[in-house]
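Margin note: ligand = sulfoquinovose-uridine-C1,5'-diphosphate.
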Amino acid sequence: MRIIVLGGDGFCGWPSSLRLALRGHAITIVDSLVRREIDRELGVDSLTPVNSLPERLVAWREVTGTSIGFEPLDVATDYERLVQVLGDIRPDAIVHFAEQRAAPYSMKSPTHRRYTVDNNVNATHNLLAAVTEVGVNAHVVHLGTMGVYGYDTVPMDLPEGYLTVSYPDRDGDTHVRDILYPTQPGSVYHLTKSLDQLLFQFYAVNDGLRITDLHQGIVWGSQTAETSLDSRLVNRFDYDGDYGTVLNRFLVEAAVGLPLTVHGSGGQTRAFININDSVQCIALAVESGDDVGDRVRVMNQMTETHRVSDLAAIVAELSGAVVSHVENPRREAEVNDLSARNDHLVNLGLDPIGLRSDLLVAEIELARVHAARVKPAHVPAESCWNRERVAARETTT
Ligand code: NAD
Ligand code: USQ
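Resulting structure:
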């Protein structure tokens, strides 16, 4: 297939592009490289030394003999060029990773909130409008988030995207229909993924676009079989307070002897997936595009759920690190249960790796190799959208 990967220079997009290329697809990465600019804005850097995208692509060609194309392009602002690229390539599938993806970054200031909405909603809408305008029959595969479901206390296995509801009409007859699961986003970032869902629903019904929305859990781990082929192909590994996700942060903290930063009680339960399972899911989703009709296919891309405090205990046990409960900078329930169905991807062949201790240890070892690059000042999570509660607690203690 001809596949365009929007956001193919990022943490999930890069290893996914390599996996799809190795499976024989013709890949073009479209990326504005804004994420590298955001690193500079924040003064942070990946734990691993990441090469420039052109250098990565040269390395890939040298190692595998196959080429990956690159179009530098801002999907949210350069609609005309996007139309041109779609018209030139006429892709069979487009994988859409190109959004601002950190909840803490999206909550730093009004500027960051507005940037996140502008970038994410416009990127998604430009893509859908461009596919429609060009008239190409491309299957759109979007990376959404498990976070759109929210963290209710209803003891149920979250369905995949839709909730079946019944309601009476004026005559008292009962009707049954599937509706998009009501969203409860916990940050402006998560809100943009809720908005994306409505855009998808509209374009699937109105314009007949084939769309898969992958509700992905928190990705942990960093390297895949392909990124390990050559040091120049190494994937990024974020550990800073904005972009570092919880388990990866714990692994780096453990590697360099910092306490594991559990927010509040650590009773938050979240969905997780290893980066290797994530790239497998992308391939499964892309290669099953013929199954998608005029209803958006939603698949929960997660393999297990864990409590944050349990993850900290596992990492502490493996590494001897100390666990520290810090004030929670986020407005979120500090205790919740969560379980979710992932039948779609399992039925397509997902064979999850899960939270294996050898993989956790391998990531700690990788972090130890690059320990000199870790800047302890970048570790604290400083974006706070829970100020009233933090202040209230401080005055009562
Ligand atoms: P990332 O920040 O590492 O990568 C995103 C890439 O998209 C970057 O290379 C960036 O330069 C590019 N980009 C952003 N806006 C763009 C635009 N307007 N035009 C062109 N390129 C643009 O993020 P990631 O961790 O790889 O996440 C990718 C996607 O997966 C996101 O949509 C995110 O919401 C979703 N996701 C990530 C995780 C996770 O744990 N990392 C979990 C669930 C879902
Ligand atoms: N947390 C800690 N300590 C830390 C960092 C985080 O206890 O040092 C807690 C947070 O308070 C939260 C949980 O861990 O309760 C998860 O935080 P996270 O930063 O790992 O994940 P999140 O903000 O939800 O965002 C990440 C990705 C996002 C993706 C989402 C999937 O950045 O792109 O959409 O995971 S999900 O969580 O399923 O919505």
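The pocket of sulfoquinovose-uridine-C1,5'-diphosphate (ligand 2) is lined by residues 101-103, 145-147, 217-218, 245-246, 249, 261-263, 268, 270-271, 308, 328, 330, 332, 381 (CB under 6 Å).
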